[in-house]
Amino acid sequence: MLKKIFFQIHWFLGITAGLILSIMGVTGAIYSYEQPIQKWLSPDSYTVQAENRDKLTPVEVYQHFHQTTPEMKINSITIAKAPTDASSINIVKEGARKGYNMMINPYTAEILPEVKGKEFFQFIQQLHRTLTAGAVGKQITGACTLMLLIFIFSGLYLRWPKKHSFKQWFMLKPQLKGRNFLWDLHAVVGTWVVIFFLIMACSGLTWSYGWWRSGLYSVMGVEQPKEKRGEDQGKGGERRGNREAGPRGEHASGAPQQGPAGEHQRGGEGEKKGLSPEQINLALSQTWTGFNAQVGRDYSSVTINLPKKADGEVELTFMDAVPQHERARNKATFDYKTATIKKMDLYEDQKLNEKIMGSMLPVHRGSFFGPVYQFLAMLAALAMPLFFVTGWMLYLKRRKQKKLTLAARNSLTAVNIDANAKPWLIAYASQTGISEQLAWRTATSLQEALQPVNVKSVQHLTLDDLKNTTQVLFVASTYGTGEAPDLASSFAKKVLSAQVDLSHLHYAVLALGSREYPETFCSFGHRIDEWLKQNAAQQLFATIEVDNGNNQHIQAWNAALAKVTKLELQAMNIEKTFDTWTLAQRDLLNPDSLGAPAFNIELKPKHEVVWQAGDIAEIQPGNSAERIASFMQKYQIQPNTQVDSLQIPIENALWDKDLTLEVEPFANMDHLLEQLNTLPAREYSIASIPSQQVLRLVVRQQSDAQGQLGLGSGWLTHHTALNSDIALRIRTNESFHLIDDNRPVICIGNGTGLAGLMSLLHARIRLDYTQNWLIFGERQREHDFFYQSTIEAWQTTGMLQRLDLAFSRDQTEKIYVHHKLREQAQELKAWIDQGAVIYVCGSINGMASDVDQALIEILGEAAVDQLRQQGRYRRDVY
């Protein structure tokens, strides 16, 4: 449930905030390289021809401009040490709160050409921070940055597995197609950039919200600088007039290193404080000479702020010869009256947390961590639109699929109905959903022929429904050894035992089953047919049997229905499209067991895959190489004979064909293949959940009288090599799905039936639900306690509240799970009174029927029927 909530939040915020974040990502990537780009565009502004003389000192620069343009008010002067680097001055300019930088020739004080691209980067900056929409835009970008944090953590949670695979997490899979490729691109690239986005979001929010900035200072253990007096306070403690100010009053625009904007622009040259040009000359001269003599370290540039007060102090900032980043400034105060450095704060002496909080812009753009990280951060920012685009495409595909599904289900009202047509009632009895699927497809086929149709599960079908209709179609599965599906048990007991006049009723039955159980094949469908006949209902056509979802049998139903109704009905079938999985692991679970070998089978997908605890894995089994060779020898087929229509050798085409059938003489390989049916699929309960990144099965080897391994078990446990492909599809098993709340669950099973119970328990424990009771039976504890370490760990940690084990061969008298159930009868009643849901998985011969009888003895037949109807008694038995 939590994962569903996170998923809904993730996609909803993605389609709402994704465009804004894409804009912020692209503009941020461009803006992070503002200085290099400007230097590349304006080489004449930043570099000069080196001359064979010293650069002008700050006092000489000041004197030059005081003489040539006395109206110019200078805030600061920056001198770069490299011979070819320009110097700069920062002057007072109306509308420029931080002053205006001018690049000058360091040898002549000539003003160099204007830096190109300033207006462009100012626009990019505003687009990045406020979408050029002022205060409203700032609130939007701030909110979207908060959403980015939600994306990061929800995305990680949605991907987080219990078993970590580097390839699954970090490797793109270009062989994927369509939606699977989009999801892989979205998730894998998202994992690559998660650390970059996390740092960008956490640092970027310091300019959006005062409460975030204050909280970050507290978390980092750094004292937050006090706001300067006299400045207006905006909402959230932000300075209204300083929208670009970051922590410690940094100018977030990233002024050129050679000429950082001066912090003392008001008044310029100190004139409002009464300093004369002569005093400024003296201060600059003494400071320049004394600072260089006493600093004791190399530097790349130094900025001297013109003094405001006649207190003998001049403030300087200087950059190390190789600074950590563009804001790694050292600060000094020079007393020119005593010719000493009064105070010096070196950047390298700061603690890491102080450096981070004092350099938030470099942290945000990535330069704080070095040029390689900054480049990768820039690429990550540029990738932001990728998530917006792929997220939207995934959303639209998912929405389209939901619309198609809804349309199929609601198609009964989608067209005009023939007013003269008699209504059809279609009733289905389904255990795993196949009968329900066929009922709806039959309904859609009739509805397309303008027939009114009503579809109903037999658990909701009453005798009055049958009395009040004239045409009914039953689609009924046979479960277990000839039983009704669990939810149809009440219908079987109450309705099929009643005597009622149905002479007005015309009916047909589609019976589903498996010929692997010849004695009970389609028996529940035939039972419905017999009951209808006994009550004088009129058969439209003979009951049609469907073996394992065989499409030819389904088409026979469609054709018979079309013939009797004289309607043109569209073809219908059950699509069985198998995906390709990899057989990643195979472990023997019960060495030296008295029973047949049982294996832990682990398969990994090559695509995005989702299933729920309790679902079924359908495997397309294949023939062993020996069986194929024997068949070819029998029919004198030469190896590597080509199948013309498929352009593959016949050996490859026979891998999934039923080779036990006798075939007629064939003219070619295509003719041969036409006579061979595809091997029936095999179904296995899934023992894992998707977050474990592996689909786990428990498969026991089955053998026939000649010792030949069964198709499914042989294929998975013996014939297929590790890392080979397996054809598999997930089939939802809604009747065995986990409840979505914290009611207690009682899991009962034996042998390989533990698989279905393990998936339920994994899901419950993932949700931190602890009211779990497992009753499991096998032969010997020493050899047959499947997944013992996991189950005992759950018990030790309190995630499995009760564990009862029945190992039948560990004592003289055989003990089975139904004995344990009877021993714990009072405890069972207590759990049922608390709303517990019972899940039974395993062999229907013996275990499931014995458990059913024990429950009836303990709780009463009416109570057990009520549990079934309430969905509190669920079975996956075979």
From TrEMBL:
Keywords: Electron transport, Flavoprotein, FMN, Membrane, Oxidoreductase, Transmembrane, Transmembrane helix, Transport. It is an enzyme of class 1 (oxidoreductase). Its EC number is 1.8.1.2. Pfam families: Flavodoxin_1, NAD_binding_1, PepSY_TM. Residues 424-562 form the Flavodoxin-like domain. It comes from the Bacteria. Residues 576-739 form the FAD-binding FR-type domain. The keyword Cell inner membrane does not apply. The chain crosses the membrane at residues 12-33, 140-160, 181-207, 372-396. GO terms for molecular function: FMN binding; sulfite reductase (NADPH) activity. Residues 225-274 are annotated as: Disordered. Residues 225-251, 263-274 have a biased composition (Basic and acidic residues). The keyword RNA-binding does not apply. InterPro entries: FAD-bd_FR_type, Flavdoxin-like, Flavodoxin/NO_synth, Flavoprot_Pyr_Nucl_cyt_Rdtase, Flavoprotein-like_sf, FNR_nucleotide-bd, OxRdtase_FAD/NAD-bd, PepSY-ass_TM. This is Sulfite reductase [NADPH] flavoprotein alpha-component. The gene is cysJ_1.
